[in-house]
Design brief:
Elements lengths: L1 E5 L6 H10 L3 E6 L12 E5 L5 H8 L4 E4 L17 H16 L3 E7 L11 H7 L2 H19 L3 E7 L1 E3 L7 E4 L9 E3 H10 L12 E4 L1
Parallel strand pairs: 1-2, 1-4, 2-3, 4-5, 5-6, 6-10, 7-9
Antiparallel strand pairs: 8-10
Helix pairs in contact: 1-6, 2-3, 3-5
């Protein structure tokens, strides 16, 4: 599979890149600064540009079969850092527009617990974050992205991750819908990345928003 990746230099995106290549996929990474990629491999194509630039998205998506988005507008390493209030939604909108013209119909987007109907069973800490000045914009961005995906004709997955952590071995994946089973508190970035790559081929996740955690 030829994967178009947004967020390849980020804390989760770097694992998506690694898993994709290890699984034999070809990857096109759209990045603002190619120097942030720590390695160049035969199956990795690097395109310099911005995810908010529709022309850059169209060029990067050329000949690709699927899209993965791991952008985070709170992180400068992933193209955000407060520079674009709706970085994720704007970027996904550009992807959906290019997908409508170029043919790929599969996209997986990293979302978060508390978005959409998952707010109903989010813990109090998450509910408190949503109203905070620091995270209010991030949740609004994810909500807008969720709406764009649901209104599109493509086969999308919005993986709503619980709190992301960086350490430890992979544990058992927990996939939650409607609060059942109850999600665990955390998931490693490596496991979230693995899920994003593997779900591309799994029709069980088409047009769905699973909450992902591990225990």
């Amino acid at each position: 599979m030829r994967i178009f990746l947004l967020g390849a230099t980020g804390r989760t995106g770097k694992y998506v890149l690694n898993f994709s290549l290890l699984m034999g996929h070809q990857v096109t990474a759209l990045v603002r600064d190619p120097a942030r990629l720590d390695r160049i491999l035969p199956d990795l194509r690097v395109v310099t540009g911005s995810p908010e630039n529709a022309t850059d998205i169209q060029e990067g998506m050329r000949n690709c079969d699927a899209v993965i988005v791991t952008l985070n507008n709170l992180s400068r390493s992933e193209g955000g850092g407060g520079q674009a209030p709706f970085l994720i939604a704007n970027s996904v909108r550009n992807c959906l527009s290019a997908m409508a013209r170029r043919g790929p119909d599969r996209i997986a987007v990293m979302s978060m617990l508390g978005v959409g109907d998952s707010l109903e069973y989010a813990p109090a800490a998450i509910r408190g974050m949503i109203g905070s000045a620091e995270f209010k914009g991030l949740f609004a961005d994810h909500e807008a992205t969720d709406m764009l995906l649901r209104e599109s004709a493509v086969n999308w997955t919005a993986a709503r991750a619980v709190a992301l952590c960086d350490n430890g071995p992979l544990k058992d994946l927990v996939v939650t819908y409607g609060g059942t089973p109850r999600p665990a508190p955390t998931i490693s970035r490596r496991h979230a990345a693995k899920f994003l790559v593997e779900c591309l081929d799994d029709k069980n996740y088409f047009k769905k928003s699973p909450v992902i955690s591990e225990r």
